Amino acid sequence: MSVRIVVMGPSGSGKSTVGAFLAGSLGARFIDGDDLHPRENVRKMAAGVPLDDADRQPWLRVVGEILQSEERIVVACSALRRVYRDVIRGEAPDTFFAELAIDRAVLEERMRLRVDHFMPAALLDSQLQTLESLEADEEGIRVDAAADVRTASALIAAAVGER
Predict the structure, then answer these.
(1) 78 Cβ neighbours under 8 A, 6+ residues apart
(2) pTM recorded for the entire structure
(3) What does the alpha-carbon distance between residue 98 and residue 8 come to, in Å, rounded to a whole number?
(4) What band does 112 get if pLDDT is binned at 50, 70 and 90?
(5) What are the DSSP E strand ranges found in 33-119?
(6) What was the pLDDT predicted at 52?
(7) PANTHER family from the xrefs (predicted)?
(8) Is the pLDDT of residue 7 over 90?
């Protein structure tokens, strides 16, 4: 059985941490979607400029292509809007989405504490305004990101196993 999972949510939600742990527990490859952004996207975000849909489209297609190219893979990717998830599903139709839901204050604190990341805390509001939670007809699960990494990963793995 193929396992293609996107751990999604706004910056600071724990996508990379949960995604890497989940991949390890499933014997899957882990890729941080941030590493797939073109340089121009990274420059814009680092300068405090939110990406627009045109900026995101090529990146989302690459995320989908990478997902489709592997049998067992977990990708950390914001995938904030349904149309973004649709682009990913267009490339990798069997992708399972795990949304990390977390309070704004916790996100802000996490973003302020990060010193090695290009995404400034100033972009948190634009991320939260863009966020569209998973809908009932989307293959996925919503997990409380305040849970410890092991618990969040176990919930996601169990949901993937139930498909």
Answers:
(1) 8, 9, 10, 11, 15, 33, 84, 127
(2) 0.85
(3) 6
(4) low
(5) 72-76, 96-101
(6) 85
(7) GLUCONOKINASE-RELATED
(8) yes
| Triad 95, 96, 99: Cα angle to 5° | 130
d(CA 50, CA 87): 19
Closest residue by Cα to residue 54 from 80, 84, 33: 84
Which amino acid does the sequence have at 163?
R
The pair of three-digit structure tokens given for residue 33, joined into one six-digit string: 């979607």
Helix (H) or strand (E) holding 60: helix 53-69
The owner of tokens 């969040």 is: 152
SS3 96: strand
Contacts of 18 (CB under 8 A, 6+ apart): 7, 76, 98, 100, 143, 145, 149, 152, 153, 156
Query: What residue type is assigned to position 61 of the chain?
Result: R
Q: CATH topology for 3-162?
A: Rossmann fold (3.40.50)
pLDDT digits 0-9 by tens, 33-73: 989 988 888 888 778 787 788 998 999 999 999 999 999 99
Report CA 106 to chain centroid distance, whole Å: 17
